[in-house]
From TrEMBL:
Residues the record marks as active site: 195
Secretion signal span: 1-22
Record InterPro entries: A_A_dipeptidase, Zn_M74/Hedgehog-like
Family statement drawn from the similarity comment of this UniProt entry: Belongs to the peptidase M15D family.
EC number: 3.4.13.22
Site entry: Transition state stabilizer: 104
Keywords: Cell wall biogenesis/degradation, Dipeptidase, Hydrolase, Metal-binding, Metalloprotease, Protease, Signal, Zinc
Protein name: D-alanyl-D-alanine dipeptidase
Cofactors required: Zn(2+)
CDD domains the record matches: D-Ala-D-Ala_dipeptidase_Aad
Length: 217
């Protein structure tokens, strides 16, 4: 299936031609083949300005297991467009988005739910996370030296300190979280109260849950 998706995403860049006949003269006008905004694509085909730290492609996560074969960030095209726009805003201010997780197959969601069955931290696979729909990202920010900003807790910290409403942190930490949230919201994302790192594309909430493994070659 992802082979098919990859072919589709590549075709986005291919130029087609159509013939137009005007005043007895035939000529060809290049046109760009469009793909649907809901098509799954690979972020790296649209931007090289992201920093990758895909935790589920390593054992450094709460599952203590490498559950992705490779560290690719797949998302629906509309999510990619919004994320690239947000990253441009961060870059203008001297920062970049660091990615922890993007699209997540439903089978992985089930493994997560089995370990942490608390909807404040892991979505019930019966409903499906927006990650399973290709509309959510788990992110942080790095500065010009590649150093991660202090957000108060690590990614996937399961406790109240990870929430946006927790205010017993230094001004610096609170302002880092606020900065991340402000730019993401300006670019069409919603924040999630109990996880400072999680953002949902507003227009992606109702897309279908998907369960596919991507091709790592
Ligand atoms: Zn998330």
């Amino acid at each position: 299936m992802l082979h098919f998706i990859k072919t589709l995403s590549l075709s986005f860049f291919l130029l087609g031609t159509i013939s137009v006949c005007a005043q007895h003269e035939a000529y060809e006008v290049p046109t760009e083949q469009q793909i649907a905004d809901t098509t799954f694509v690979n972020l790296k085909d649209y931007s090289t300005d992201f920093v990758y730290d895909m935790k589920y492609a390593t054992e450094d996560n709460f599952l203590k297991a490498k559950v992705y074969d490779c560290a690719e960030c797949l998302l629906r095209l509309k999510t990619v467009k919004a994320l690239v726009a947000a990253n441009k805003d961060f870059i203008k201010k001297g920062y970049k988005i660091k990615l922890y997780d993007c699209y997540r197959p439903l089978s992985i969601q089930k493994k997560m739910w089995a370990i942490v069955s608390n909807p404040n931290y892991v979505a019930d696979p019966k409903k499906g996370s927006i990650h399973n729909r290709g509309g959510a990202v788990d992110i942080s920010l790095v500065d010009a030296d590649g150093k991660e900003l202090d957000m108060g807790t690590s990614f996937d910290f399961f406790g109240p300190e990870a929430g946006h409403n927790y205010t017993k942190f230094s001004k610096n930490i609170l302002s880092n979280r606020k900065f991340l949230k402000k730019i993401m919201i300006q670019n069409g994302f919603n924040s999630f109260d109990s996880e400072w790192w999680h953002y949902n594309l507003k227009t992606g909430l109702k897309d279908a849950v998907s369960n596919q493994k991507w091709n790592c070659n």
